[in-house]
Input
Amino acid sequence: MAFKTLKTKREAISLVKLGEEIAAQRRAVGPVVVLRNAGNRRTPAKQALLDQIAKGGGDW
Output
């Protein structure tokens, strides 16, 4: 245990169980659309970075 003095009221949860719970919540909610910044005020350096990400196949 990382913290020898930490006392919680909840039982520890495994990463597998956490993943299952998150997946169940995502199925219940459905796809979430997050609005993105239009990017009208990007600096040249930021735009160059985003162009390199796009060249590498990334989607920023």
